[in-house]
């Protein structure tokens, strides 16, 4: 039945700031960008190397996130990386605060968290 994740949708408060973060800092490829006048909203379609997509939306009216990260609903978005050390250094070179790297007690894999410009919790997991 289900065969994978197609996309994750994110609503941002500052479109240009988030567009820069997801493209220049995280390196996602722009597939399409549209301004939807009737909604006064941008929709930016981004793609990861495996084909998974992130849809970045801007809306003039949005509800703030209830808490970080233990709100009901989406807890965080996780990305796979080849090298935890290189990825952390890359993020830090853009002044992104990265939590200390942890080891998952069940998989013995490295992982850590950081946040996007709207404080959305993001995770990186080493292959």
From TrEMBL:
Keywords carried by this UniProt record: Dioxygenase, Metal-binding, Oxidoreductase
Signal peptide positions on this chain: none
Domain of life (superkingdom): Bacteria
Name by which UniProt lists this protein: Glyoxalase/bleomycin resistance protein/dioxygenase
Gene3D superfamilies: 2,3-Dihydroxybiphenyl 1,2-Dioxygenase, domain 1
Gene Ontology MF terms: dioxygenase activity; metal ion binding
PROSITE patterns (alphabetical): VOC (PS51819)
Entry-linked CDD domains: VOC_Bs_YwkD_like
Residue ranges of every copy of the VOC domain listed in the record: 4-127
Organism: Psychromonas ingrahamii (strain DSM 17664 / CCUG 51855 / 37)
InterPro entries according to UniProt: Fosfomycin_Res_Enzymes, Glyas_Bleomycin-R_OHBP_Dase, Glyas_Fos-R_dOase_dom, VOC_core, YwkD-like_dom
Entry-linked SUPFAM superfamilies: Glyoxalase/Bleomycin resistance protein/Dihydroxybiphenyl dioxygenase
